[in-house]
Amino acid sequence: MQIVDPAFKGENSGHYVPGVISRGMLYVSGQLSIDPDTREVCRGGIREHAALALNNVDRVLKAAGCRRSDVVFCRVYTPDVKYWGPINEVYAEFFGEHRPGRVVVSTTDLHFGCLVEIEAVAEVPDAKEK
Q1: What is the three-class DSSP state of 114?
Q2: Which of these CATH numbers, 3.40.50.300, 3.50.50.60, 3.30.1330.40, 1.20.1250.20, describes 2-125?
Q3: For the segment 35-46, what is each residue's pLDDT rounded down to a tens digit?
């Protein structure tokens, strides 16, 4: 396994890493709608929460040498299914024409009061060529 560290500046006391590459796949740990540099929770509405969580996923992808188009699956957590529409719109803007597999899970409250958490799985480009 290879640890992927996007050099987030904020201290995270959780017992996990932002990303792990194993057997040609990148596994992005759940990225909350929190600024990983300041550890401040997003202050905007659901669209801003979704955009921040996706930006955090993107930072892990880039640190691993991956692009958004390398993502094969995402799992999106939100505390209420009423957020599905706005999350879907922001998600579609983020990925553009690329459509990875996805599930949206309505949960109980998320950590720190965040409204979105996203985990992802991506193919690592170097591994695709082998």
Answers
A1: coil
A2: 3.30.1330.40
A3: 999 999 999 999
